[in-house]
Amino acid sequence: EPNFEYGQFVFDTLVLVSYPLEIKSTYRFIFATILLMEIFFSEKFPLRGSIGIGDFSIDGDAQIFLSNSFKRLRLDEEGQQWTGCVLLPEAEEIVVSSLLGNVAPHMLPKSAPVHRYSVPLKAQQSQSARWCLNWSHFLSPGVIEAGLQCMAGDAPKQENTRQYLATLGRLSDDTQTLSWDFIPAKRLKFMKARSGLRIKFEDDAGNGVNPGCSWP
User: Fold this and answer.
1) What are 84-136's pLDDT values in tens digits?
2) Is the dihedral of CA 173, 178, 183, 189 positive or negative?
3) At residue 18, what are phi and psi to the nearest 5 degrees?
4) Residue 216: pLDDT above 80?
5) What is the DSSP string of 129-168?
6) Measured over all CA atoms, what is the biggest interatomic distance in the chain, rounded to whole angstroms?
7) By the number of CB atoms within 10 A of the CB, which of 53, 127, 138, 173 ranks highest?
8) How much is the pLDDT for 13?
9) pTM over 0.85
10) Is residue 51 packed enough to be buried (19+ CB in 10 Å), middle (13-18) or exposed (0-12)?
11) Neighbours of 26 (CB within 10 A)
12) 34 touches 135 (CB < 8 A)
């Protein structure tokens, strides 16, 4: 089943639209967006974005997309000074409850699909705590460092992203250490929500590998 009802590049912006909101479609939309951010970052093309709720209209023949939330999303995205993706206030309750239920923000482990964080903004704007997508969890340290290095031309953006990743690194880690019969896999990472999860077997360097044994 598709993760998005609609997706299109509008100038330099990738627009993604969820199916009507319920627990399963919210899970698919958020986890697929996280995966896209991973892929783009791995290719040294770090993204930033915002997620809101609104109405939209599409003219497929003319390739026209209109939405009453597009301006809010654009302004919010442009004001961020990092690599990341945040929820607009109107999207927070339904997205967070669909993913996590009633878990308190301070109880979330490193593997949670979203975290509460004071998003770094550009000059003349005050920071505020926002819900942010956890796009870095399944990336290896080498891929993360290479992606950060490609941001060297924008020092504030690079440093703000480093600080965000360091904050995640201090959260409780529920990665599972595997027994020898899983070699070359040494650890099992996962990211779970109320209606689904992702997993990754990885070696000592954080690269994805197949386990050396069958598993249920």
Assistant:
1) 999 999 999 999 999 999 888 889 999 999 999 999 998 766 678 999 999 99
2) negative
3) -80, 160
4) no
5) EEEEE--STTS-HHHHHHHHHTTTTSHHHHHHHHHHHHHH
6) 57
7) 138
8) 79
9) yes
10) buried
11) 23
12) yes
